Amino acid sequence: MRKEIRATISALGGYVPSTILTNQFLSTIVDTSDEWIKQRTGIEERRIANAEDEATSDLAASAIRNLLDNYKVKPEEIEAVILATATPDHLLSPASSLVCKKSGLINAFGFDLNGACSGFLFGLTTGASLIESGRYKKVIVVGADKMSSIVDYKDRNSCILFGDGAGAVLLEPTTEDYGVMESVMKTDGSGTDSLLVKAGGSRFPATNETVQERAHYIKQNGALVFKNAVESMASASSEALHLNDMDVEEIDWVIPHQANKRIIQAVSERLNIPFEKVKINIEKYGNTTSATVPLVLWDFAEDFQPGQNLLITTFGAGFSWGATCLKWGQLCAKKEKFECALPESAPMSI
Q1: Could you say which of 148, 180, 212 is where a domain stops?
Q2: Does the residue 343 lie in any domain?
Q3: E strand or H helix at 144, and its extent?
Q4: The domain spanning residue 161 has which CATH number?
Q5: Among all residues, which ones are annotated catalytic?
Q6: What is the pTM of this model?
Q7: What is the mean pLDDT, run by run of 10 residues, along the chain of 350 residues?
């Protein structure tokens, strides 16, 4: 009898730009303060890509190269790349084609997936399905966003939240009791106007008027997003636990989308999961949209032990949201010390 194939994470990579944008710097360009930002969001600083030399494809390719180098994976072995992003280099062609080229993935096909802040979770489940089909052996899912390209640094409500970065995972098949379990993924369109870049697509193509109206920058209804994020992440997490016949007590680590520390705390309380089980790095990177979950996995990889249960939950524009359970497996061959050193910091200017 053929054993069930599951998709397990066998390698990780990450990348954040060297330039640090601090709360103190933001307080010099908009009406805010370090204390106010930390109290409201938990964010202390965020990384910002070079405006001219680093696009989303560059961030994603750097994360993939970090994965390949650290775990001694040959680029020609990769068969597919799923790029979760809300900020592709161009509307056309797909940024994933550039990522394949820049990463040396000569035998892979790739495609972009825009699920906003839920993009990586959607991509992870999609990649797991490719593995579970038995047709693919090595699939990379990478979440990457250059949010600074759509942030209005005159809008204090949004510019304090977002940063740039990328994280990647390699999925491989296993017949052991590890890997991605049943997932809950949802979108309903009800929040389209509450978290939106209005112009630049087919509904409102770029014009002089859209530029003057600053309609190419992200706008959001923070209070409505907060309320829906807490309710949706908590309910999806409960549903995912039920689908996988798991109790809250069986979860070793929670990996939430890093949108706001207060949202994460509220979700933890609703699920009755001790906050010490929740992994957070929002203070360093801010909200990197599609990159938040894989960057948490990358940052805390040494804390996860084979056999431990992880709960991943996300919420984003659309609205889009979801959750999945993941039994951590054995990472593939790696260097003696897991390398996740960040680039040296550089001064910030906007």
Answers
A1: 180
A2: no
A3: strand 139-146
A4: 3.40.47.10
A5: 117, 257, 287
A6: 0.94
A7: 84 98 98 97 97 95 98 98 98 97 98 98 98 98 98 96 98 97 96 96 97 97 96 98 98 98 98 98 98 98 98 97 97 55 53
